[in-house]
Queue: 2 jobs
Job 1
Amino acid sequence: MVENRPWLTFLAHAVLITGVAIVAFPLYVTFVASTLTAEQILTVPMPLLPGSHLMENYAQALSSGSTMGASAPVGRMMLNSLVMALAIAIGKIAISVIASFAIVYFRFPLRNFFFWMIFVTLMLPVEVRIIPTYQVVSDFGMVNSYMGLTIPLIASATATFLFRQFFLTIPEELAEASRIDGAGPMRFFFDVVLPLSKTTIAALFVIQFIYGWNQYLWPLLITTQENMYTTVIGIKRMIMTGDAATEWNLVMATAMLAMLPPALVVVLMQKWFVKGLVETEK
Amino acid sequence: MRFKHLTLVLAAAGLFSTGAHAQTEIQWWHSMTGALGDKLNELATGFNNSQKDYKVVPVYKGTYPESLTGAIAAFRAGNAPHILQVFEVGTATMMAAKGAIVPVAKVMNDAGEPFEPKSYLPSVAGYYTNTKGEMLSYPFNSSTVLFYVNKDMFKKAGLDPNKAPKTWKEVVAAADKLKASGQACVYTTGWPSWMHIENFSAWHNVPIGTRENGMAGLDTVYTINTPLHVKHISMLGEMAKKGTFTYAGRTNQAEAKFYSGECAMMSSSSGAQANIRRNAKFEWSVNFIPYHDDVKGAPQNSIIGGASLWVMGGKKPAEYKGVAKFFAYLSKPAVQMDWHTATGYVPITMQAYEVTRASGFYDKNPGADMAVKQLTNKAPTANSKGLRFGNFVQGREVIEEEMEAVFAGKKDAKTALDDANRRGNDILRKFEAANK
Amino acid sequence: MEKRVVFRSAWLPYALVAPQIVITVLFFFWPAVQAIWYSFQVQDAFGLKTEFVGLRNFSELFHDSHYLDSFRITAFFSSIVAAAGIAISLLLATFADRVVRGALAYKTLLIWPYAVAPAIAGALWAFLFAPSVGILSYFLRKTGYHWDWVLNGDQAMFLVIVAAVWKQISYNFLFFLAGLQSIPKSLIEAAAIDGAGPARRFWTIVFPLLSPTTFFLLVVNIVYAFFDTFGVIDSITQGGPAGATQILVYKVYYDGVKAADLGGSSAQSVVLMAIVIALTVVQFRFVERKVNY
């Protein structure tokens, strides 16, 4: 903000508050619903102020899942989600940063071909190729394992694309200086590029962590034991399809719990996050 | 001293022997969520505790379509489950997959398990039986469509709350009166195709398609654009225009409209009773679905919805023995009664129905037996045994799309049903080509 | 875009791209080729009987007027979702960058929805807009507006657009915010001293400098609108009413996962893939020229 224009500041706050209201409203409803009983939720209109059942709903969600006890305890599911999220985030960043470095900073035959090859992975939704992908994973004997859960999801075009955008903005002088110093490409990578990328990496970590945490269809298909299930599967399983009644209050409570780790990651990494993408455009 | 020593040794041997005795594991993939899933787990546990040789392991694999996709992928990769729960609209797909499934009748007979096809309710088992009388899959969770009435609203409109409309003429008359008394929503329905095309046809003893509704051959053709069907859908379209029919969506969204007190009459699954009982703050009744009294043979019997258990191919004989034993366990009247009374799904044998009746359950829960009564209203004919159309997931969607056009006033009933028929037949031909 | 200073090595670049390429080939290309191969076949769900039919699946698609309608619906849906998503988040990011008080609170609250799993977000929106018990439906009815998205195609389209855009706002907001904060304050100050007002400063300095971010988000948002929105549609309208919200990818998902029609689903995904690749190539060729690195 350069000069002081009160009406503009006022406008800014107004817009932001409206934005927050719209964007955060569904989450607020989720929170309120998690403090009511199932019957209260189904009254029309649903009360918009938090109710009094917060403790009992969350206690039930944590201990047994639904009123008669789900097979996979929430703790185990959160562990599975955590493993998936971390493995995917770290794996993706690792292979994308070096691939992107090669594509931007080297001249070699097939360079553009490789970039497009990686990029095209965004163009075919996983649901279409899920059956052949399952077959490949099964042939490798990776069904029902953490490896099978995570490795197929690691080839990410988004990360490579983002790193490419970032690397293109790194001033030429830095690379030149490195060359003049007689440093090889890998020295340049570790001493210059990687430190500069710290914040982009933090940003990607948040995004990929959430991506891994929120996986539903792939873990559902690839695991055959319920103790390998992720938190999202646990939640969807509480939402009744067909005839019987969904216990919405417990569903919402579990959803709130499931949102905590990613939300925590977002908030904590926020400083790094925003700073990280700052350096993306020099 | 020595006696104690011996006892210890024997005890240890006993422990080891139970450990060394390998249990044959039977994988059961299902799609039951929440409390239903818990009840299902109870069934498996009950079986596991009743014997030592087999262990049924139930695994929740997502919704019916997700679970089926998973099973298809697993089968192609060589690691399918033993038992798979498949929704009724997937019956044709499963049946046509001759190498992928083993008919239940064969499984039971090969294992020498007692299996009396005649003891199953004809309209329940008939859906999953082929034209030779061989039962292909095990009818596990079935429901049918019923007609619910808000008695308080009837009283308010000057109608007799204890006389629910029996014919569609009566429904229209009641609807008009309810509308005149200021009711905003008068009649709504869940599962529009299941109620107003599929069950409609069965209830009036007319076919939905040729070749015994597809059961006798892949070359079946839809016949849902007859004058009777057009008349019925036209009637609904007229009601929609007048405001006496409120369309609520393709699944069970109508149920919330009923138990919240918004709509006075509703047709939906028999499984809605549990929800209604829990949430309705008014007097209500559950009844047979209405019929057109100028159609000879109506009312016939209704057909089921829900899912059944299929046995997948490629497993070892010892494992199939376990599956057969499990199905025999599930058919025990006590187990059937437990499942039926806890979930609201219909009991699948006459014996189970009788046992439940003798226990006084229906006296304490009036309406809980309405589903069975409607299903057994008359002995099923070729038109009312059920249906078996290929790719019916897509077929039903086409029918619902065309119905939506009528209810929104965009198409007249005849055009819509002609289009539904034509588009449905295209889908059937594709299935036929793929499975010849 | 090219770097002027590059390295040369016979083997190093290949070693660096190898992990990603290997995984991509094994777990994307190999299955994708098979999936595409399905589009030339007619087979039963379990793959027990397969028959090669060449382009028959494709010709059946293009003879179906409902499928052709989906093109129009998808174009409309995707362009609005991408445009609205980018515009709204840019607006929010610009203002969030400007305020000092409460900045952290605003940022946290606007980023949080990104943490909601798509599978759950869909259920949430269906719950909020459920015809009877949904609280938003209730408010709309109170305003007297005849809100019936179950039968009114335009309202249904509006609803799914809102749900799809909502999810993306957080994602775009994050990237825009970061991009804004990287613009050197000195540039802005200099322009202010020269007498340029806030609007002028935005369009002549800020927006061009944001272009790498905007380009990235444009590509990503269009891909998202084309490919990742079927979950939203599945949980709310299922393509209804009467096909009004039947976008291309929804039918792909529906036919593949729900109806087990692998041939039809693969044929549609081939078509969809071709469209998006063409769109992306166009973006890289023409739009990227305008990006300032």
Note: The mean pLDDT of chain C is 83.
Job 2
Amino acid sequence: MYFSAHNLTGGYGEVNVIENCNFKVNRGEIVSILGPNGAGKSSAMKAMLGMLNLDSGTVTLDGADISNFNTQDRIKLGISFVPQVNNIFSELTVKENLEMGAFTSSDSIEGKIEEMYDLFPAIKEKKQQFAGELSGGQRQQVAIARALMNNPSILMLDEPTAGVSPVVMQEIFEHIIRIKEKNIAILMVEQNASQALKISDRGYILVTGKNAYQGTGNDLLSNPEIRKTFLGG
Amino acid sequence: MDFINAIILLSNFVLVPSITYGSQLALGAIGVTLIYGVLRFANFAYGDLMAFGTMCVILFTWLFKSWGINFGILPTALLALPFGVILTIGVSLFFDKTVFKYYRNKKSSPVTFIVVSLGIMFVLNAVVRIIIGPNDIVFMDGSRFIINAVDFKETTGLLEGLTIKTTQVITLITTSVTCFILFNFLNKTKTGKSMRAYSNNEDLALLSGIDPNKIILITWIIVSILATIAGTLYGLDKSFKPFTYFNNLLPIFAATIVGGIGNPLGAFYGGFVIAFSEIALTYAYKKFIFYLLPFSSDSTNLIQYISTDYKFAISFAILVVVLIFRPQGIFKGKVI
């Protein structure tokens, strides 16, 4: 496996919000982390990014142990993260947002910016506008494009479709599929569980901070118990 | 003719002084707003940092003069300015490393930072008074006027004279050049953009690999440059007295908040709004009205509605009104 998290246990202060969680994702694969509210989905993602205090657990990238790396060092290794909220620089233009995404790269980034405009044509027209002036769906595209600017091998998305209309949600999922084709490993936390599973290769369902179910997208979708409990029938 | 006289009168006593004072406030306010944007606290030590910077410039001016060096018709202080800037950057970085960094690592609240900056204000205040004393110091040399009232009257035949001091022109040119460089830096360079990004969304800046320590270092350097330039221009134009610099904190903060705190362009305009209000509202309009009215007014009324003693009350009033009705400032800044 390209990226794996093993036996993650940790939380805020005394309380553990995740216990013995395991996740794996390969390049060119979409993996969803699902579960009810408060199950520790976002915390698990933060743990993999080095943003949560861990009592135990290891994180490996391409065979190398990166458990002791801080967030900034993990980002330099090619892990990109799109937070759920405040995921754009609202006072910077769309183009500047993309430039900031490639802050750590010293090469010319013009080509990379063009590549993003091809991937997200909607934001190309708005490149000189302040990102804060865009619609919810376009902001989300800017956020994902920013994260893709430093050529990540793993893209982590925290609820990329939170608070957008079903049409925009579909659009964002289509973009995520296109990103997957670039041989990037995609790990996402989602509330819209059944829609997310439809585009996912595999999924993990967390309940109260523990791995409850895992399997391929189709397996999870066809399991009647999971359908009833987590996917709304 | 009376109309032209009235315009010249107003230019001489309101317009030119407002533009000069406004430029000085603008430079100061941009410094305060940058600290607020990047380090996220209101720096009360800023007035005294300006005083410290100006003091360094004065000391270098005296040194150069003792060596017989001067700058022709321009003030020697302009030659001393770069050296003053370097010392001021040094003192800013010293306080950042020894004091502010400690509270940053502790993730202290903005209120704690304000109190800490008050402490540094007292220290700087004392240091300046110990080194150079509390008295008024005039360090302007070179040619005093570019347009002198008497010559102006003779040449134009008008009743009113227009005076333009060398320091006023220097202030205007220096401010324009400084702001041009600063805004180009913030909007065109990678480092400048990353500073704006950090100010806008700190968490996302960290996720983009922007190094906060570098941003903070650059911010202190820019702020020290601005403080020294603003302080020196103010001192050249009027005189240097540590207490005045401490006092200027109020109009500078007012300009910062009027323009929208955290917004450098807003701070720039805010400086002019405050300066113009202070000067225009405390000016005695008797003579101006006399030129414009067809009949002569016999009254002894100066038509000055607010005494110049209350000029700080004006910036304070503007500050309060803005905070009540438009807390984000004229240009959109952060809401405090």
Note: Chain B has a mean pLDDT of 91.
